[in-house]
Amino acid sequence: MANNDFYKKAFTLVEVDTAVRFDVPIGSDHEFFTDFSDVRGDFEERMIYKALNINPVTYYYNAEANKGNRTLIFLAGMRGSGKTSELAKIAKNLNHENGFFCVTCNLDEGLDSNDMEYMDIVIFQLERLFQELDIRKIKIDDSIIASLQNWFSERVKEVNRAIKKEDGFELEISAGTPGILSFLGITAKVKSNLLGSKENAQKIRTVFKNNFADFAIKFNSFVEEVNFKLRSTKTAKELLFVVDGLEKTASLDIRKKIIVEEGNRIRLINTNTIFTLPLELMPEGRKLMNFSKVVSFPFVKIREKNGDIIEKAVQRFIEFTYKRIDENLFDSPETVRKAILMGGGSPREYLRILEYANMFSNDDDKVITAEALEKGIKKLAAETSQYVSSEDLKKLMALKQANEESKVMPFDAECQDLLEKLIILEYNDGTYKRVNPIVEESQLYKQNVG
Fold first, then answer.
1. Model confidence pLDDT, tens digit, residues 293-344
2. CA distance linking residue 180 with residue 140, whole number of Å
3. Which residues, 6 or more positions from 70, have their beta carbon under 8 angstroms from its beta carbon?
4. 211, 131, 212, 145: which is closest to 174 by C-alpha?
5. What distances in angstroms separate CA 176 from CA 82, 145, 248, 394, one per listed residue?
6. To 5 degrees, how large is the angle CA 92–CA 98–CA 100?
7. What are the CA-CA distances from residue 400 to residues 106, 298, 342, 381 (Å)?
8. Apex 55 CA angle, 51 and 56, nearest 5
9. Other CB atoms within 10 Å distance of the CB of residue 190
10. Distance CA 163, CA 365 (A)
């Protein structure tokens, strides 16, 4: 999680832009954090805990009953739904003596978003694990680390030969000095070269992937030793990785290769893990269910299918608003309410609306007015609908009619494309979709769909 300590509540208009940053995930211990877990329609937070075999009330994990039972969860949801903040809260709840030792891996902070494979992620997971062990002063016997460290050392030698470079990675590994800091030095060197030239990065991956079955055995054995140490020191019952940020990689091809094509390697890693699943890979959920659990994470359900407003959800967004922006910076509660309804239950879309409203605010007024909000909505609506095609409009019309008749909209590739572009927003377990309210405000929509 990025350091967001400098994001403070806005008391003047000039401070609003920072307070509504939607590209910075907020941790559960930050003053901005708002718990939306009970206003997401059919989704219940307990689903994630139950999938992890955790008691959803006490957050206790029964290691004895789950001996050898490791859980892989894909948390699937739309961009801007708040998955990262929700996961931060869940990790905080689980990170205790009777729960898990949680290790969060933010891929966009630790790896190259333009060039990434699953092998990179596993190496990053190990690096983050060793970092957390070092931070928490948990001593792992050097003899246990030695086997894994020696395996890495051998692979580095193979890579050095493949690159045909005399000094290779310039890794000076003493065979008799295994340990947390020594291993961190190896993973740091390997990772830095993965972030270097693509040619060398590919050679590294090839060597490691060719030996992946053996690596998985080493990895899993090491995790078992770590779990034993966590229990014996009364630190936690087991290890849990939270792997987030996959949707921030540069292309669909990268994401698809990691999740779909590398599925066989993912299933070989036998440790509790939560992966966030990008929206465009949700159709692959059926395949993933063969070796994992897929949990849908929807937007906040702010309206029923018939259009009725869900007041509890609105009130939660009001709380969300005033944690970031002082209520005296709005001309009236009605302006806030209008902005909330236009956000459609997406925290990120709502913050974007507030950003645009502030952009059109008059400094002389010293508040965000209803007029500024209207101008912001108009501008955002035009930008959002700019590339909506005639075929898209037919789909939006069909969706509008389906909701009016309380029918479920069939899924297809065109629907998927509109979801990715946030032209359509999704709720519940995927059976309820609505047109983004911002799109409904565009002249294009009004003229063609109404």
1. 988 888 999 999 888 999 999 999 999 999 999 999 999 999 999 999 999 9
2. 8
3. 270, 271, 272
4. 145
5. 46, 11, 40, 68
6. 50
7. 37, 19, 16, 18
8. 80
9. 24
10. 64
Give which of 421, 351, 333 is closest to 385, Cα–Cα: 421
> 10 Å Cβ neighbour count for 148?
20
Contacts of 354 (CB under 8 A, 6+ apart): 16, 20, 321, 325, 339, 368
CB of 152 within 8 A of CB of 182? no
pLDDT at 284 > cutoff 80: no
Q: What Rg value do the Cα atoms of the chain yield, rounded?
A: 24
Query: Which tokens in the block code for residue 16?
Result: 């609003």
What's the rounded Cα separation, in Å, for the pair 445 and 436? 11
Q: What is the percent of the chain where pLDDT is above 90?
A: 55
Q: For 350-368, write each residue's pLDDT tens digit.
A: 999 999 999 999 888 899 9
Phi-psi region of 8 (alpha: psi -120 to 50; beta: other; left: phi over 0): beta
Query: Which of 433, 74, 423 minimizes the C-alpha distance to 247?
Result: 74
Closest CA to 180 of 239, 232, 139: 139
Rama region for 179: left / alpha / beta (φ>0; ψ in -120 to 50; rest): left
Instruction: Report d(CA 134, CA 69) in Å as an integer.
Output: 27
CA dihedral of 53, 56, 57, 59, whole degrees rounded to 10: 50
